[in-house]
Specification:
two-stranded parallel sheet, globular, single chain, 7 helices, six-stranded mixed β-sheet, alpha/beta
Length: 288
């Protein structure tokens, strides 16, 4: 840059001398440029350091659990009432509400109307939680319960198969399950052509069962009949003497995210003082 600046100054000097009639060429002199630094008299401020408390940087499991308990207590304190006054409410401010099967069906039917989800051809599903605490391991032997899906027996042979009870366990023929009776052909048609559902084990003591209840557009009376048949058949797989088999129920109708809880004590056996059959009572004593 210094060379280009010197060249421009030289050209301008030549033009100036030619106008004055002087033929002498004078080279211009350039004064050097010096950079002057001034000392800052103000005291430089150092970057502030944040002191981290090492004691608070680690949260123990005990403190973390205590904080979780405090949060849960705060959530409980936000409950406004046991039951909302309006038909629309914020779930976190009220406990889970339970309804009858008729009320739950009507609520889902309202959601499925053409003005909302437009899903009248959709399906209802009944979800049930099952108590599996009475399930026991089967002793080893020639017969295995897994070898038989259903075991049918006539009443005149009921006493002859009693020695097989410890091996067959849940598949052992019983009147309550419909596997012990006088009409062998009727029992065969029921279990051969019937609809079989299987529960999913959540834990060792808890099972989950979901069955289709019917179309949303079906009359409520028909859906209630299907509901009652399911409850009756599922409850046969556990003796009333051992307590309720169905612990909770809910009704869903996809794609609606709403899951309406039902009052299980009003429908499932084992919650009231029912009469216990002698056959069921004997099975409960052996299971215990």
């Amino acid at each position: 840059m210094a060379a280009s600046l010197s060249k421009s100054l030289t050209l301008s000097t030549k033009v100036l001398l030619s106008t004055l009639g002087v033929r002498q060429q004078i080279a211009p002199t350039l004064s050097p440029v010096f950079q002057v630094r001034h000392r800052n008299k103000k005291q430089r401020v150092k970057d502030a350091k944040v002191d981290v408390d090492k004691k608070n940087s680690y949260i123990s499991k005990k403190d973390r659990k205590r904080a979780t308990v405090n949060v849960s207590e705060q959530e409980k304190s936000t409950i406004l009432a046991a039951k909302p006054l309006d038909n629309v409410w914020v779930h976190k401010f009220y406990p889970v509400q339970h309804f009858s099967i008729q009320e739950a069906l009507l609520r889902h039917k309202a959601f499925a109307q053409p003005a909302m989800l437009d899903n009248m051809r959709g399906l209802f599903y009944l979800s049930m939680r099952l108590d599996l605490t009475t399930k026991k391991k089967i002793t080893t032997g020639v017969l295995k319960a897994t070898d038989f899906k259903h075991v049918l027996c006539t009443t005149d042979c009921g006493t002859e198969i009693l020695p097989l009870r410890n091996y067959l366990r849940d598949t052992f023929p019983q009147k309550a399950k419909g596997t012990l009776g006088s009409d062998l052909q009727a029992m065969w048609d029921k279990f051969f052509y019937g609809y079989t559902v299987e529960s999913q084990k959540v834990t060792e003591s808890l099972g989950q069962l979901q069955v289709p209840l019917g179309l949303i557009e079906q009359p409520v009376e028909h859906l209630v009949e299907n509901f009652q048949v399911y409850i009756e058949e599922v409850s046969k797989h556990k003796s009333i003497a051992l307590g309720p088999f169905i612990t909770s129920m809910s009704l869903v109708a996809p794609p609606s995210p709403e899951e309406i809880a039902l009052r299980v004590e009003d429908y499932a056996p084992g919650y009231k003082n029912e009469e216990v059959d002698s056959d069921e009572e004997e099975m409960s004593v052996e299971a215990a």
